Amino acid sequence: MGSDFARNITLPNITFGTIHMYLSSWHKKDAWGQTYLADRSAVSHNAGKPIALEEYGSAQGTPSYFTQWNATAEGDDFDGIMPWQMVDTIIDRSYDFLFTSGAGTETKNMCTFQNGR
User: Fold this and answer.
1) What is the structure's pLDDT at 11?
2) pTM, entire model
3) Distance from C-alpha of 38 to C-alpha of 15, rounded to nearest angstrom
4) Each residue's pLDDT tens digit, 8-33
5) Which residue, 94, 98, 104, is CA-closest to 83?
6) Which stretches of the chain drop beneath a pLDDT of 50?
């Protein structure tokens, strides 16, 4: 947001692209996020560069769209997926999730996919 991703990714000293995605902070809807992921993947790969969904999350509990974002990133051939924050509950002002929860299952599934690449 605020820079020219399509121009920057073509610079010879840039070896790969990364994006962050915080739709609630950006006041965007999930449909916008799906388009954003697909666009950035296409732009990066057309420039011959790998791309990673480097940072995304929410401090309001893990929404179901994390699964959708991961699936979109996997389908759009992102070269890396690294969530920043997948929260089930807020305990003592810190963010946490259990590996036996929905966030934990999604994390395990994402790791399995990435390990298979």
Assistant:
1) 96
2) 0.75
3) 19
4) 999 999 999 999 888 877 888 888 88
5) 104
6) none
**Helices 30-46/65-75 angle, 10° precision:** 20
CB 94 within 8 A of CB 101: no
Nearest alpha carbon to residue 113 among 71, 76, 84: 71
DSSP the chain: --S-HHHHTTSTT---EEEEE-HHHHT--HHHHHHHHHHHHHHHHHTT--EEEEEEEESSS--THHHHHHHHHHHTT-SEE--SEE-SEEETTEEE--TTSHHHHHHHHHHHHHHH-
Contact 5, 20 (CB under 8 A): no
Q: What residues does 56 pair with on adjacent strands?
A: 21
Which residue carries 């990714």 as its tokens?
9
